[in-house]
Write a structure and sequence with these properties.
Chain A: Keywords: Cell membrane, Membrane, Phosphate transport, Transmembrane, Transmembrane helix, Transport. Chain A: This is Phosphate transport system permease protein. Chain A: It is found in: Cell membrane. The complex is a heterodimer. Helix content of chain A is 76%, strand content 0%. Chain A is mostly helical. Chain A folds into two domains: 37 residues; 247 residues, MetI-like (MetI-like fold, Orthogonal Bundle). The N and C termini of chain A lie close together (9 Å). Chain B is α/β, with parallel strands linked by helices. Chain B is built from ten helices and ten strands. In chain B, the strands form two sheets. Chain B has a six-stranded mixed sheet with strand order 6-7-8-3-9-10, with helices on both faces. Chain B has a four-stranded antiparallel sheet with strand order 2-1-4-5, covered by helices on one side. In chain B, a hairpin with a 2-residue loop joins strand 4 and strand 5. In chain B, helix 4 packs across helix 6 and helix 6 packs parallel to helix 7. The relative contact order of chain B is 0.20. The chains are: A mainly alpha, B alpha/beta. At the A-B interface, helix 7 and helix 8 of A face helix 2 and helix 6 of B.
Amino acid sequence: MSSTNVDDLQSVVRGGPARGGAGDRVFRGLATGAGVVILATLAGVALFLIVRAWPAITASAEDLPGGENLLAYIWPLTFGTIIAATIAIVIAVPLSVAVALFISHIAPRRIAQPMSYLIDLLAAIPSVIYGLWGIAVLGPASVGLLRWLEDNLGWLPFFEGPASATGRTMLVVAAVLAVMILPIITAVTRSVFEQTPRRLQEGALALGATRWEMIRLTVLPFGKSAIISASMLGLGRALGETMAVAIVLSVSGAITFDLIGSGNPSTIAANIALDFPESSGLAVNALIASGLVLFAVTLVVNMAARTVINRQMRI
Amino acid sequence: MTAPAHTPVQAKSITATDLDLYYGSFLAVKGVNITIEPNKVTALIGSSGCGKSTFLRSLNRMHELVPGAYADGEVLLDDVDIYAADADPVQVRRQIGMVFQAPNPFPTMSIYDNVAAGLKLNSRKIKKSDLDAIVERALRGANLWDEVKDRLGKPGMGLSGGQQQRLCIARATAVEPDVLLMDEPASALDPISTLAIEDLITELKKEYTIVIVTHNMQQASRASDNTAFFNIEGTGKPGRLVEVDTTEKIFSNPTHKETEDYVSGRFG
C-alpha cells in the first residue's frame, strides 16, 4: 500500500509543472545527463565487448590460443568461475545469515552496533589484501584440513585429492571469496531482519516460542526474499572477483570437481588479469570474448536478484 | 466431531502482590495488589498511559521484552510465582496466552498452520489426526470453524480483520493455556466483529480466566464480571490500581470518586 502512495507521489512530481527558475533547469539537466551517461557507458561496454570479441568468435580453431575452438577455451574458465562463486555462496550465506541474526536479534545492543561496523569494515579491505592473506595465511593453514578431507571424505568427488601441499586450491579460494562477500549479504539481510514487525515477533513469543522458534516462525519467513536477493548480489560479486583468485589459485586449466587439489580451472576474471599483459592479436580477442561471457553471467545474476527484490517490495 | 466447544474447565487465578513495573529507571506502574478470579472476565480500564497495558503484559512476562524493563514483586498463577528465579518465561507464556490489539496471524502461514503453530513449538510431536482435532476444536471455540473449514490451507492473511482476530484467539487457545490476556482485542475492528469477539469472550470464560484491557466503557460493562480501574496522577508519575470490584459496582457505585468521574465520563 505504501509503495502505491510513493508511486502516486512520484507521478505527481514527474508530471508537475516544468516552469521554475534557472536552478530547476540546471538541476534537471544535470540529473538527466547523469542518467544518460550511465546508460551510454553500459551500452558502450557491451558494444566494446561484442565488437572486440567478434574476431575470436569467427576465427578458425587453429588461430586461437591452444589451437582449440573458442568454446573449448572459455568453457573451463566459465566452469571455474561458477564453481568458485557457488562454493563461496554455500559457505557465505549460512554464515552471513547467522551473523545478521546475531546482530539483529541476539547480541545486546552495545555489542551489536560495533559488530555491524566491523562487518562493514570487511568490505573496505582491498581484494589484493585478501589475496595475500589467502596465499600467505589461509592456504598454508588449510593444508591439514585438506589432507583430512582427502583421507576421510575422499569418496566424494569434491575431496578426491591428491590434497595440495600449498593450500592454493579451489576450496581456499572459495573461502576467501566467502569472507569478501560476507559483508554485503550480512548488511542486506540484517536490515530486513530488523524490520520484522514487532507484533509478529510478540505473537510468536506469546505462544510460548523460544527465541530461536520466534526467529524461525517470523524473522526468517519475513526475510526469506532478502536472503535470496542478498545471496544473488554476493554471487555477482564473487563471479567477478579477480585479484584474490589470481593470487591464490594454482591453475592447470583442468575441468574438475576436485576442490582440494593443485590442478584447478582458472576463473574468467583472474585469467584475463594474468594473461592480458602477455597477449596479442587474436589471443586478446579471445580474452575479451571470455569477458563477454562473464558480463552476460553477472548481468543475468543481477537481474534475477532485482526480480526477487521487486517481488518482495510488492508484498 | 460436534462436541460442545466450551465445556466448563477449572481455570487458574492470578494474584499480584506489591507489583512494581519499571522501564529502566522509570517506574511505570506502582504497588499493584489484585486477585484475578478464575473463570471470570476481568476488565482493566483507565486513560491512556495509566499502565493497564504494562500491567497486562507483566502477567505473562511480555513486559520484560522491552530492553531494560523489569518487574519487582510477586505474581502468582494459582500458587506458583511466575517471577520466581527458576521460572522460565517461555513456560509462563505457554500457560498464559495473549491476544493483541491488532490481529497478527503469521503472514506466510495457512489458517491451519497458524492455529497449529503453538502446538508445534518446543519440539512437541503430535500425531496429524490429533493435530487436526485440536485445530478444529480451537477454531470452533473461536466461532470461526464454519467460516474457514473449506479453506484451511489458504493464507490466514486472506481473512477479514475480525476473522483474523478470531484466528489469533484460536491460535492462543489451541495450546490450552490457563489464562487468556487480551490487549484491546476489538479496538481495530468494526462494531459487528467487536460484538462477535465479545460474545466469544463470554463463552471462553467457561474454560479460561480472562483479563482484557479496553478503552470502551460499554465493552467493559457488557463483557466483564470484574473491573479494575487504573489511573495516573500526572505526567511522569507511575500508574496505579485505584480499585477493583465487580463490574456492576464499579459502574454504578464505585468506592473512589476518581473512578466515578472516569466511568461517567467526567475527567480530572
